From TrEMBL:
One of its GO terms (cellular component) is plasma membrane. PANTHER family: INNER MEMBRANE PROTEIN YEBZ. It is found in: Cell membrane. Keywords: Cell membrane, Membrane, Transmembrane, Transmembrane helix. It comes from the Bacteria. It is a multi-pass membrane protein. Residues 46-140 form the Copper resistance protein D domain. This is Copper resistance protein CopD. The chain crosses the membrane at residues 6-29, 50-68, 88-111, 123-144. GO terms for biological process: copper ion transport. Pfam families: CopD. Its main location: membrane.
């Protein structure tokens, strides 16, 4: 598959993933915390999740395909030997952390949040953490243009 096409899909999906989380952090989370109303978060999540998760899946697929095009196959993940391997390995590590946050939110925090606005600070921590990780991954991806880190 053409590298430029993969990059375009990857960037559009990154805009959806990171942009959606930035909107959540800066528009919905403060209002939910201020009014102690978890439904702002729950309603946004319900609308955003199908689009956001689809974008995340495409991000992973296009990221892996592009890594292979740069010569970073699964056998060299987490070796941190070359600058591009470092970018790929750090991004994969951050992806794993994101998945752990998502699992924690899905199975631990969201069930509590549905009936208890007192769980908003914990959900806020998850939201801010995943958003920060997304921004860091976006910045790391920009280093590929310069040969890695």
């Amino acid at each position: 598959m053409n590298h430029h096409f993969l990059l375009i899909v990857h960037l559009i999906c990154a805009a959806i993933w990171v942009g959606g989380h930035l909107l959540l952090v800066f528009a919905y989370l403060p209002k939910a915390l201020r009014e102690k109303n978890q439904h702002y978060i729950l309603d946004y999540e319900k609308k955003y999740e199908p689009v956001g998760m689809s974008a995340l899946v495409l991000l992973v697929i296009t990221g892996i395909l592009m890594a292979y095009k740069y010569g970073v196959g699964i056998e060299s993940w987490f070796h941190f030997a070359t600058p591009i391997e470092k970018v790929v390995s750090v991004k994969l590590t951050l992806l794993i952390v994101t998945v752990l946050f998502a699992l924690s939110a899905q199975f631990r925090v969201l069930p509590k949040l549905k009936n208890n606005p007192g769980a908003l600070p914990e959900m806020g921590f998850h939201i801010v953490s995943v958003t920060t990780i997304g921004v860091v991954m976006l910045i790391l991806g920009s280093f590929v243009r310069f040969g890695g880190i």
